[in-house]
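note to self: dont lose this again. the chain is below, predicted strucutre after it. 738 aa total, dont forget to put it in the shared folder this time
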Amino acid sequence: MTHASDPSRRCEEAVRLAESGSKREAEARLRALVAEGSRFPLACIALGVLCGERGDRTQRRLWFEQARLLEEASGQPLSQRLLLNLQVDALEAGEQERAEAYGRELLVHYPEDGEAHLQQARFQMRLGRLEEGISHLDRAVEALRARIDADSEDVKGWRLLASAEQQAGRHEQALEAYRQALALDPNHVPTLLAIGRLLGDRGTMEEAMPWLMNALAVAPDSAEVLCVNGIALVRLVQHEQAMILFRQALSIEPALAKASTSLALALNDQGMYEEAARVSREALTHNPNHTDCRLVLATSLRCMGDSAAALAIFQEVLEEDPDSLGAFCQWMFTTSISDVATPAEVLATARRFWSAQDREAAPQAPPIPATPRASGRPLRVGLLSADIGSHVVGWFLDSLLRHHDPARCQLELLSMKRRYESYSEALIAMAEGFHSLEGLPDTQARALMRERDYDLIVDTSGYTGGTGIHLLAERCAPVQAHYIGYHATTGLATIDAFIGDEETAAPELQEQFSERLWRLPRPWLAFPGHLEFPEATPLMQTERPVLGCFGQMGKISDATLAIWAEVLLGVPEALLVLKDKGLQDPDVRQRLQDRLAARGVAPGRLTFLAPVAGWHNHVDHYNLLDVALDTTPWSSATTGFEALGMGVPLVPIRGSRMASRMSSGLVRGLGRGEWIGDDSRAITAVVANLCANLPALREGKVRRQREALASPLFDGADLATKVTELFVAVLEAGAQCP
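---
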């Protein structure tokens, strides 16, 4: 029998092709074998794996079941390969008992196999069974080391050992094992990708790129390789190049869910929400129940202002998988900036989620005692963040980092995700220490924080992207708090406090929080001093009042539009100018015009400005405005600072939640309480009053800019002093509100 006509050899070659990254060709060969009538369990397993990697779980299960029937017909125990894949399939389908049964069967028949123990380690850790997971991981490493000791040219053994070491958080050992595997098989694409991913996950994308590009050189037509390289380029803020690769991947494999979700996420980052939603919906035609595709679609809808539709999707995913941290974080963020759920519902949902995690988790580390500080010793504070760089959180950390007194309060940055920007390095240089938690298993990340012996850990991300808040579900410092990046309760019993001011953390809001509200005696933020505002100059070329909002498209809710419409009808000569990256799509702009037209506002009164490069150019556009309008229930923060810093009056819509009081907190900090309203009638009256003497309003712009820049809103040194004083007072009071 010739090699070309030997079905068994052809099957093995196709599997090797799949394992080396040539998945499209491998699948074509495997399907040809099946079509010819060959009945190889290995072919069915490989086809199932390929379908699963595209996100088609239904076809994956069908192929695995076919392989099972073929293997059972032999009268022998199911193969290790099949049992491993059946367990993964069951686990991803939420069939925990079935997955556990496959795991038990696997270990009965293959008790000393390193790969079997490695998978059980992953399985147990995913369920929060830390001790069992570590036990299996130790046995996996031991077995795999023995395997390569017996045969140092066992390339699969080296790869499995690398994976086990990586699972254990021993990244250097993992990299060495991967390199040993590559020495035996230099062009093995999955290993090249594994090294690239590992280096990228550790925050060293510049080291990762050569490995990923090597994989692309070996397999330029691999959708998986194109996708992984695209994801790396997004991390490096090269979105245009990344999107080219994602589209190439989809042209090769239209059903590759990872490529679709990555493309949609990149489009969202660029403000192209409509196109992102179209990409996600197309992906769902191939994989109707794919969780990530649904979550990304929901994110696009929220960014377009449809929080209700987004929340319905997040809720649906949570009902299917109540332990999904990703869906829960998205649900919490969406409810924090919308009025779709009441604060009581948000708090109850958060408590249920974290209580369920506690029941599943291994016993927590014992509480950390709050030991008195030695006399004269400065506070040790860890700032946990995913946004150390050119992000609004990074901006507002700047004032604290730049002006804090290390003799009183030492600040260390705990980074969840590196941002590849020079400003990130500038922020790091202002702190007394920097520690990357990126890519670390949760147990190691928590151990690192505990070893730093902090008096206080302050989370700055809440439930936003890349958050590390789940790490604080187990106590890592005597006192844990949230500040800056989130605007509602975390619902975590181990977060002791939430930092705001007399407006954003007012006493009447306490019932909405599981945390104690700590109040600064000044605005809770200060704009960073490294950004220098251009001179305020009236540039309006019209005698009509020019109102405007440069906030995110996702903040323009129906409630906001109802208030804006009443303002525009109450000030009938006024024009409305809007600017945001999310308003680049003509269809989005048209729908916004239609929504206002339905409320009686003629389209001709609405103007859209295109986003411009550079912050200085962006804020210079405020010279075109007479009055800045606010949004609700997610109010202005960064754009509020910018408007006031350019001498433009900001008219806040004061609501009954923290998220709807950020702008009123800024305006009160400026001493301009008369600009605040709590309903459409009051807002209309404020705007009409401001615009009643338009020449005087415009002439006062320079004076208002000078007053704003001299106010506490732009006094980073005062903020740093007051925050430090609050930290000291709270810690001395035992985490009680001073």
